[in-house]
Amino acid sequence: MDWNAIKVFAAVCETGSLVKAAERIGVSHATVFRHMAALERQVGTKLFDRVKGRYVLTGAGTEMQEISAGIISSFEEVDRRIAGRDEAAAGTVRLTAPRSFSDTMLPRYLGDFAREHPAISIELLVSNQELNMSDRSADVALRVAQDPPDHLWGRRILGINWAIYASPAYLKANAPLNDAKDLSAHSLVGPAGKLARHPAFATLLSVSQPLTPVCCDDLTTMASLAAQGHGVALLPDDMRRPDLRRLFTYTPAPSNSLWILTHPDLRGLRKISLLMGYLSGAFRRDPVWQ
Questions:
Q1: CA dihedral 173, 174, 175, 180 (to 10 degrees)
Q2: Which of 19, 222, 224, 264 could form a disulfide with 153 if both were Cys (CB 3.0 to 4.6 A apart)?
Q3: Nearest to 244 by CA among 183, 128, 163, 187
Q4: pTM listed for this prediction
């Protein structure tokens, strides 16, 4: 049975869509369709039904999913272990990182890394979601988390404080804002959805803090609202931007932790250890985090 067809089948199971499955594994929609058709011909039965635009497993498909899980795990382990024996400081490393770092610090850090290690190329996968590191969708991950997943190996790079930010125009037109006691005279761009349950906002939302009419569930958009003068924003320091002024650290908000992670089977791979060590040092040396 074709290993590529099994990978495609698993991606369609996870996403319920041929298009999203193609994006997940980095192939074309036509390739996914071709592999699925070939797999159904090979097993002699239909594996999916199309229900309201989604691909839903049939009974046979469910049985196939149970069987294929073990096959996929075995192939992934072979891939990781063989890759982990490579001692060459060359080749491609897939690095996944949130947009806040990818848009700001990483272009500079990775540029310096490329000059020191020209034989190593980096695929930067910009995502706030945890990519599957078992199937090597990503080799190295920069992630903000209090506790990283147990199945990954890595190190904590640094802590990231939360601070109050506002646009220069807003500050010029409104009352002074020098510390937390002044916040009651200002409207905060409030969190919405899951973000409203984040511990950083617990203290502010438990008091009579005025909020702006527009709330948001995304920190990047929250920063944009503050930059447009909607109000002040509570943001982690990786969200800093030129059109916002950092006013003071908001100490009631617990700091975030930035981790750099990989799969344990890949930790000995020279190109991966070089990138992880370099990025750890670059973050720690950068005065912006002091």
A1: -130
A2: 264
A3: 163
A4: 0.65
